[in-house]
Each structure stands twice: as structure tokens, then as C-alpha cells.
Amino acid sequence: MLILFVILIVLACVILGFFVLVQNPKGGGLSGSIAGFNNQFMGVKQTNDVLEKGTWVFAIIVALLCICSTLFVPKAGRGPADELDTKQRSSQTAPAPVNPAPATTPKKP
User: With 19 labelled, which of 69, 79, 93, 97 sits at a CA distance of 20 to 30 A?
Assistant: First the structure.
């Protein structure tokens, strides 16, 4: 399950990087440089708004995936094998029989 989260995080980061790199901080990014369309790109007005919303959405997705992935990271020293080993020890461990020490009489000098 952890591998799935890592793949989703990497994919979301690549898409987020695309959104960030396509934008131009002065407003002349993708929306102002394609074939003379100033405010319209493929039928969508204000492409900068779409790119900004996409940036926010994918930033939130990356953050949520990172937080949720911590639930699937095994704790240090507490893996599934340790839990199984502890259960086996607790079910197989019986109290050791107590043998009283042999009575000894003090030696007289």
C-alpha cells in the first residue's frame, strides 16, 4: 500500500511541476503567447485562473497523500513479524516450575 502512495505522490508532483512551469509570474504565460489569443485558450477564458486552481489542487493532493501515507509506514521495531513473535511468545510461555532449594543444615565446626 505504501508503494501505491509513493507512486501517486510522484505522479501528483510531476503534474504540479507542469502547472508551475507553464505559468509565467508576470501574467504572460501560456495564456498570452499562443497564436495571439489573449484571454482565451482552447475555449477556456482566463487560463491563468485555471492554472492557478490546478496548482492549488495538486499542492493539496500532494499534502494529503503525504499525510495519509504515514499511516502505512511501519513503526520502528514494530513490524508485522515483531507482533507475530510477541503473540507466539505470550501464548507459548508458561510459568516455569519453581523448585524449592534443598534444605541444608548448617555445619558445626
Answer: 69
Q: What is the DSSP string of the chain?
A: -HHHHHHHHHHHHHHHHHHHHH--TTS-SGGGSSTT-SSEETTEE-HHHHHHHHHHHHHHHHHHHHHHHGGGSPBTTB-HHHHHHHHHHHHH--PPPPPPPPP-PPPP-
What is the tens place of the pLDDT at every residue in 74-86?
887 655 555 555 5
| C-alpha cell of residue 39 | 484571454
Rg (CA), the chain: 33
Is the pTM for the entire model greater than 0.85? no
**What's the rounded Cα separation, in Å, for the pair 59 and 90?**
46
Annotated domain spans of the chain: 1-22+44-72
